[in-house]
Structure formats: structure tokens, C-alpha cells
């Protein structure tokens, strides 16, 4: 189910995009040109071709069925790093000719993706005085590549005061283009490129009305995610006075490179898979350390057809960490980007809220949600409630009489849907302000174009009781622009965050981790009208956005800090550190709750838990995974040779034991519906000691009813750093009545390391 929040979670050009569900272009029978990504086996490249691109061009030129002569426009991109192959415009008969070549490995029809859209560093426990920030020098010398909508380079968040010099290994560039020139890059923003061939080949236009033909950001999304990951410190940032404070990225010392792959174009806002792949290919070639992706394609696509999964494995093989948003579908079985080599991020709330305060004539004071941007005060205004007419009481379309409500604050009954229509009606009728109630739907900040408060429905009833009890109900005072901290409970799993099990492979727990994704303040493009206030449009340099799009760059920033501290850690080791130190407990010391139900959430919603950067720096033990382990994993999935070769981009490999059980820091038992109990599943794992030389770890088990858990051995002794120990975890399920049951394995040593892994049983 899509909530209002999801649809409005991006600005106009983007929320249109959010409605476009990725759909694979079907092959047409007529000889029409379509874009295909062609995966080739590079071992077939004749030595006579000096580059892959010349081989690709020659292959295309040789297609005999071509009814038009091969021209420069046929080939869109030649890929060499994320995948070997190219994207091209082809007719169906040309495609079938290509597919007959021995060098052909796989075909992916073009598809289109969607986006998943300054207090958060403090909420994550980041401090200047101690912990990972100073230890990591704020992410110095690490390069984060953003695959997104572009960047607004003039934003103060990308100033390079105090930044270290550009690492010598960097090969990226800053492109010239519309309203963009290489001189806009600096020591913070060290690369900026754009990829639009696939978008344009698919009929998309880059018109000046909607977007810039350059890495410049039209929508604000890429500027927001980039400044969240690695924005410099900016004092005095706020969203029209809300959330005022110092805006800073999670890794303010890290360098940024933007790869623009999403294009806004009125009715054809799109990100084409061929462009996303080109952006990732370039990021790998340029030498980024981390790739952050806040967009995704159809979540049901198996790895061998998923270009983000394939390109990410190629990145991982080169030691590049890939962090992706899990999606904003809010439903179970809907996580995107869940390949086990990717860090998949869900969105949590933070302990901050934006409120307005209402005092009634009887002295009752109530707070409600408001993002109304002006700090005006309403005093001694009559309160209007259309109590004898249901249309008026619910502020239905065109129901209010301007002569009745003018100069008054209007109370509207809850109707079960969101309040945006009511707000429009109250504003149309010329009232002074509005009081609404809702427990379910949250409106995006830019909808609050009038003095409006949204109360919890029980508070709304209090106001209604007051109105009914007197003939002269009054609002004594209504005040706006109040930011409150310390809200409890926090974090919660946001209602829009995509939940597991992963639709492609329920056997690996996804999402991996929860990070702040609601009401995140970060930089946007500065000149864009963010709010329509009737007579005025207001623009802001910093804005509050929500989405798993916002959560992923928080984790990308944390991985940059970890990379700065532990340059030798593999992407899997960094993910392990983040997962095994995460917390499933909120600020009321209870299990993190689900915002949608207010009930305790499970690892299917929060993964290993909420990210804790300071602890991740010193996890004690690491569950590492090597490239060959992923190959064994793919063999264990029962993929055929062609499918495996598509994912690992090789024609030769061997599988020793077809182990679909990866050395993952979480455990999932998939229980088929008609199972015979008890059901036993054994997992084997190997942990590496990266903590103190002399450490003795004891297994502490947190066992739910219906499950029995054993480890063999249950003590792991280490005498030095880098030592490895294996263990078996045996899970016996005697019954399972809920759709999900879970416990924890915690390895605890004498130096306060707690290495925690969720053990989850799901029925499918
Ligand atoms: C940079 O791009 C702009 C706009 O496309 C163009 O007018 C200008 O000539 C370009 N400059 C260079 C040096 O290519
Ligand atoms: C792109 O622009 C061309 C020329 O302005 C126009 O004919 C075409 O309809 C546009 N395509 C889309 C998809 O907007
Ligand atoms: C209620 O108000 C609406 C809109 O102002 C009006 O059309 C309708 O006649 C009213 N109904 C009653 C029963 O008065
Ligand atoms: C409101 O006014 C009406 C008519 O003047 C009167 O009958 C009623 O008692 C008053 N109600 C209250 C709660 O004062
Ligand atoms: C999840 O989605 C997949 C793919 O659509 C489907 O095959 C599977 O049955 C779903 N699983 C659950 C638990 O709903
Ligand atoms: C792995 O699976 C493949 C295909 O099912 C099979 O041919 C091969 O013998 C298996 N290897 C091992 C070591 O089990
Ligand atoms: C699973 O582990 C348990 C406990 O270590 C052991 O008794 C059992 O034989 C194992 N089962 C399999 C199938 O390996």
C-alpha cells in the first residue's frame, strides 16, 4: 500500500517519478529499435581489438540484419568495470543475431528505476571530542560516489574548508555542461558526471524547463543525499526555522563524486538501467571507495537480471562498498537491492519532531505536528466547527462558507484519509488557521502552506469536546516553528520503509540495518521554490526530506568513517561491524517499534537493528565474506551456468560445496508452510578476531519460545589479532505459530565486546 508520505516524499518532478513502477520493456514484434544491455564474455575479444569498445562497435557494425546502417547512435555505452558489455539500440532480429554469438552472455531489456525518497549525527552519537569522528579524521581521504540526480555545487555543504587534498589514486573528472563547469568542483566535490544516453534513447528529453544537461541537480534529491553522506559543516541551517542548527554530513572529511543517472523531464522522469550501469561503471573506474544508491528497480528481479546487483558484485570484488536504499514500499516482502553483497538500508525515525502549540479558551494546551514555516502567533481567535453539518464538520470540498469562517480557526473532523484536501478547503474559505487530526497519514513539510496543526485524534476529540461545551469557543494562542528533541520512542521503523523477507532470496535477512530516514535535514538546490504560500513561494537552502533514500547515505557516511579507521577491512567486514553492533532497543529501552502499528518491530523491519557508528569501530569479531563465497552461494541457489556467469562476469569458476549459507552476520531459517516438526537447521560460521589479542568469547543466546538454539563450541578463545575460529549454530524449531519468530546469538568477551546476530525463523 502506498501512503501519502511515499507519494509526496520527493518534490514535484520526483514524486511523479515515484509513481512510475519499473517495468521491463517487452520485446516488440515489429522491427522497432529498443535499448538493450548486452552482457558479453570478454574472453572472446579477439586480440586484434585494442579496446573493448572497438570490439563492441565492430560487433554491432557486423549485424547483417540491420535495415539501417550502423551509426554512432547505435552504441550507447561500452561497459568495462561494472560489467563487460554494452548497451545499444537494436531491432529484435539484430538482438537475436547477437544472442547467437558465442561471446554473448546475457541480455537485459532497458528498464526504469525509481527514487526512494542536522540533528542526525548527534542522534547517532557522533561527537567531536571522542569516538569514531576524531578517530577517523571525519572520513579523511575516503571517496564516496553518489549514483543520483546530480548535485548543486554552490551549496554551502560542499564548501571545502579544511578538506585534505584529493587522493592521488583518483581518476575522476568534473564534466562541463549546462550550468556546470569543472571549476565548480573543489576538494570536497572532486568528481561530477552525467549519464543520459539511455534516458534519451528511450524518448526522454532533457529540456531546460525541467533539468540541466549536466551533473547539476534539478530536483534536490542528489544534493540532499550527498550532503547527508559527506556534507561539510554549515552553521545556521534549517528548514524555514525548523531543525535549526549545524548541518553536517556523517563523514564531513570525505570527498564526494556525483554520477547523475536520473533525469527529470515533465512526463518522462526516468532513470534508465543503462545509465545507472554506466554511472556505476565509471565510479568503479574512477576509484571511489563507496557507492551510495538511493534508487531501485523492480524488487522481484533475480540477481542475474538485476544490473545494480551485477555491478555491485563487480564493485565489491574491487573492495568498493555498495550501500543501497531498501525502498519505500512499506509492505512485507518488498525490499529492493537485497543481493547479499550489498548493504541494504531501511529507514528509521529520529527523536525530533516539529510542532505547533495550541492553547484553547479553557486553558487546555495541546501540541500537534506542524511544519508551517512562519513564526506567527494567532491570538484570541474564535474557533469554528460545523457541528450541525457533516460536510462542514469534515471540511469537505467546497463546504465552508467564507462569511462563516473568516477570521476564525476551523476545526475539521478526521475522515480516515490524509488532511491535504481539508487544508486546501480551509485555506480556500479564507480562515485564519486550521486544526486537523490524524493518526495515520503524515503530510510532507511543503504541504503546510497555512497555519495548520495536525493533532493525534484523541487530542482532536478534546478540542471537539471543548467546542461542543460552549457557545463562544476561542483559540487563545496558536504558535508555530517549534522543534522538539528527545521524542520517545525513537527510533521507530518508519511506516514507508520496505520490509523483508527479501523477495528474491528470503534466506538472507534484509534489510541489513536501520538508519535515520524520516525528517532528515540536508542541502537542496537553493533557488527552487520549496513551498507555495499563495502570494509567495519560499525557497530554502536546506530542507526536510523522508525516505529510505535519506537513510542509505547515512550508512554510506558511516562506512566512510570505518574505512578511514580500518583501511584493510573488506566490504563484508565493514557490513559485519555495522550489523553486529547495531541496537534493536529504542530510547525507552524497549524493542524498536513499527510506526505503522506502534507494536514491536522484528528483524524483518529493522534487520540487525539501528546503526551505532561508535560501536561499529570496535566490533571485536568480524564475519568476513570473500568473492568465492558469493560464487558458492550462487551455485547453492541452483542457478544454471549462464545465470551464474552473468552475475560473476566470468566463464570459469568452481563450486566446492554449493553453500547457499553465506558467512553472514545474521541467520534465517525459512520454514515452508507444510513442515514436519521439529525442523533442524545448522549454520556454519567463521569469525575473525580483530579486537584484543587475548579474548575469550562466550555464546549468550536469547531464545524465543518454539525455538531451540545451540552453538558448538560455545566458547571461542583467541590469542592474537587476525585469528579465526569456526562454530556451528543449530536451530531446532518445534512449532512456529507467528509468521516470524526471532532470537539472538551474542558472542560476549571479557573486554565488553558484544557481537550480536539476529536468528530469524520465517514461514513462507
Ligand atoms: C561548456 O558547456 C557549455 C554549455 O553546454 C558550453 O556553452 C561551453 O562552450 C562549454 N565549454 C567548454 C569549454 O566546452
Ligand atoms: C521531446 O522533444 C521533441 C522536440 O521538442 C518532441 O517532439 C517530443 O515529443 C518530446 N518527447 C517527449 C517524450 O516529451
Ligand atoms: C451542509 O453544508 C453543505 C455545504 O455548505 C450544504 O450544501 C448542505 O446543504 C448542508 N446540509 C444541511 C443538511 O444543511
Ligand atoms: C448556547 O446558546 C443556546 C441559545 O442561546 C442556549 O440554549 C444553550 O444553552 C447555550 N449552550 C451553552 C453550552 O452555553
Ligand atoms: C514474495 O514475493 C515473491 C516474488 O514475487 C513470491 O514468489 C513470494 O511468494 C513472496 N513471499 C511471501 C512470503 O509473500
Ligand atoms: C553443485 O551443484 C551443481 C549443479 O547442481 C552440481 O553439478 C555439482 O556437482 C555440485 N557440486 C557439489 C560440490 O556439490
Ligand atoms: C546439527 O547440529 C547438531 C548440534 O550440533 C547435531 O547434533 C546434528 O547432527 C547436526 N545436524 C546436521 C544435519 O548436520
From TrEMBL:
Compartments, record wording: Secreted
Keywords associated with the record: Glycoprotein, Hydrolase, Protease, Secreted, Serine protease, Signal
Residues annotated as domain Subtilisin-like protease fibronectin type-III: 661-760
Start and end residues of each Inhibitor I9 domain: 35-102
Keyword rRNA-binding tagged: no
Superkingdom per UniProt: Eukaryota
InterPro entries referenced in this protein's UniProt entry, alphabetically: Peptidase_S8/S53_dom, Peptidase_S8/S53_dom_sf, Peptidase_S8_Ser-AS, Peptidase_S8_subtilisin-rel, Peptidases_S8_3, S8pro/Inhibitor_I9, S8pro/Inhibitor_I9_sf, SBT
Membership in a protein family: Belongs to the peptidase S8 family.
Descriptive protein name: Uncharacterized protein
Amino acid at each position: 500500500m502506498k501512503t501519502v508520505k511515499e507519494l509526496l516524499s520527493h518534490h514535484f518532478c520526483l514524486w511523479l517519478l515515484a509513481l512510475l513502477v519499473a517495468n521491463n520493456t517487452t520485446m516488440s514484434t515489429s522491427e522497432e529499435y529498443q535499448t538493450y544491455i548486452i552482457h558479453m564474455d570478454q574472453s572472446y575479444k579477439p586480440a586484434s581489438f585494442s579496446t573493448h569498445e572497438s570490439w563492441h562497435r565492430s560487433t554491432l557494425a557486423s549485424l547483417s540484419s540491420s535495415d539501417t546502417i550502423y551509426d554512432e547512435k547505435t552504441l550507447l555505452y561500452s561497459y568495462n568495470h561494472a560489467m563487460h558489455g554494452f548497451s545499444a539500440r537494436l531491432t529484435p532480429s539484430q538482438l537475436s543475431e547477437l544472442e547467437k554469438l558465442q561471446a554473448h552472455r546475457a541480455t537485459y531489456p532497458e528498464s526504469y528505476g525509481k527514487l526512494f525518497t542536522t540533528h542526525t549525527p548527534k542522534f547517532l552519537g557522533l561527537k567531536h571530542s571522542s569516538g569514531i569522528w576524531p578517530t577517523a579524521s571525519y572520513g579523511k581521504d575516503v571517496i564516496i560516489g553518489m549514483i543520483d540526480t546530480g548535485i548543486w555545487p554552490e551549496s554551502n555543504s560542499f564548501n571545502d574548508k579544511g578538506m585534505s587534498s584529493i587522493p592521488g589514486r583518483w581518476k575522476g573528472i568534473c564534466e562541463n555542461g549546462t550550468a556546470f563547469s569543472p571549476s565548480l568542483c573543489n576538494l570536497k566535490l572532486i568528481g561530477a558526471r552525467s549519464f543520459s544516453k539511455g534516458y534519451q534513447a528511450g524518448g526522454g528529453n532533457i529540456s531546460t524547463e525541467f533539468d540541466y544537461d549536466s551533473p547539476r541537480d534539478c530536483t534536490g534529491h542528489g544534493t540532499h543525499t550527498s550532503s547527508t553522506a559527506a556534507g561539510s559543516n554549515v552553521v545556521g541551517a534549517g528548514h524555514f526555522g525548523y531543525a535549526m542548527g549545524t548541518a553536517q554530513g556523517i563523514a564531513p572529511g570525505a570527498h564526494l563524486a556525483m554520477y547523475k543517472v536520473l533525469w527529470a523531464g515533465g512526463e518522462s522522469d526516468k532513470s534508465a538501467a543503462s545509465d545507472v550501469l554506466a554511472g556505476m561503471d565509471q565510479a568503479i573506474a574512477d576509484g571511489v571507495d563507496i557507492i551510495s544508491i538511493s534508487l531501485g528497480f523492480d524488487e522481484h528481479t533475480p540477481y542475474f537480471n538485476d544490473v545494480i546487483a551485477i555491478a555491485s558484485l563487480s564493485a565489491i570484488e574491487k573492495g568498493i562498498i555498495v550501500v543501497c536504499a531498501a525502498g519505500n514500499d512499506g509492505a512485507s516482502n518488498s525490499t529492493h537491492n537485497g543481493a547479499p553483497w550489498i548493504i541494504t538500508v531501511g529507514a528509521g525515525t529520529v527523536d525530533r519532531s516539529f510542532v505547533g502549540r495550541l492553547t484553547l479558551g479553557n486553558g487546555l494546551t495541546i501540541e500537534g505536528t506542524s511544519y508551517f514555516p512562519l513564526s506567527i502567533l494567532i491570538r484570541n481567535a474564535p474557533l469554528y466547527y460545523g457541528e450541525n453539518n457533516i460536510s462542514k464538520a469534515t471540511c469537505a470540498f467546497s463546504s465552508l462558507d467564507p462569511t462563516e469562517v473568516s477570521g476564525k480557526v476551523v476545526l475539521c473532523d478526521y475522515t480516515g484519509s490524509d488532511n491535504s484536501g481539508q487544508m486546501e478547503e480551509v485555506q480556500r474559505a479564507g480562515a485564519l488557521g486550521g486544526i486537523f487530526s490524524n493518526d495515520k497519514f503524515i503530510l510532507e513539510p511543503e504541504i503546510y502552506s497555512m497555519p495548520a496543526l495536525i493533532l493525534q485524534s484523541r487530542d482532536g476529540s478534546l478540542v471537539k469536546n471543548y467546542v461542543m461545551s460552549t457557545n463562544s469557543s476561542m483559540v487563545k494562542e496558536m504558535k508555530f516553528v517549534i522543534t522538539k528533541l528527545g521524542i520517545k520512542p525513537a527510533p521507530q521503523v518508519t511506516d514507508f520503509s520496505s520490509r523483508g523477507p527479501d523477495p528474491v532470496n528470503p534466506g538472507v535477512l534484509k534489510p541489513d540495518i536501520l538508519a535515520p530516514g524520516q525528517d532528515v535535514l540536508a542541502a537542496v538546490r537553493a533557488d527552487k521554490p520549496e513551498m507555495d504560500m499563495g502570494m509567495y513561494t519560499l525557497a530554502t537552502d536546506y530542507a526536510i526530506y523522508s525516505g529510505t533514500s535519506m537513510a542509505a547515505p547515512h550508512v554510506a557516511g558511516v562506512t566512510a568513517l570505518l574505512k578511514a579507521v580500518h583501511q584493510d577491512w573488506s566490504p563484508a567486514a565493514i557490513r559485519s561491524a555495522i550489523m553486529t553492533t547495531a541496537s534493536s532497543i529504542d530510547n525507552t529501552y524497549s524493542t524498536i517499534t513499527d510506526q505503522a502499528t506502534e507494536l514491536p518491530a522484528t528483524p524483518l523491519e529493522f534487520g540487525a537493528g539501528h546503526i551505532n557508528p561508535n560501536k561499529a569501530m570496535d566490533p571485536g569479531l568480524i564475519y568476513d565474506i570473500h568473492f568465492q563465497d558469493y560464487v558458492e552461494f550462487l551455485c547453492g541457489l541452483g542457478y544454471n551456468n549462464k545465470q551464474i556467469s552473468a552475475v560473476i562476469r566470468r566463464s570459469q569458476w568452481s563450486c566446492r560445496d554449493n553453500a547457499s549459507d553465506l558467512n553472514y552476520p545474521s541467520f534465517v531459517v525459512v520454514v515452508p508452510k507444510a513442515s514436519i516438526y521439529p525442523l533442524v537447521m545448522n549454520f556454519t560460521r567463521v569469525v575473525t578476531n580483530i579486537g584484543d589479542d587475548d579474548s575469550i568469547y562466550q555464546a549468550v543466546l536469547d531464545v524465543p519460545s518454539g525455538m531451540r538454539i545451540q552453538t558448538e563450541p560455545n566458547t571461542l578463545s583467541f590469542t592474537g589479532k587476525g585469528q579465526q575460529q569456526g562454530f556451528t549454530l543449530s536451530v531446532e524449531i518445534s512449532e512456529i505459530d507467528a509468521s516470524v519468530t526471532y532470537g539472538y546469538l551474542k558472542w560476549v568477551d571479557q573486554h565488553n565486546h558484544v557481537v550480536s546476530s539476529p536468528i530469524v525463523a520465517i514461514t513462507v
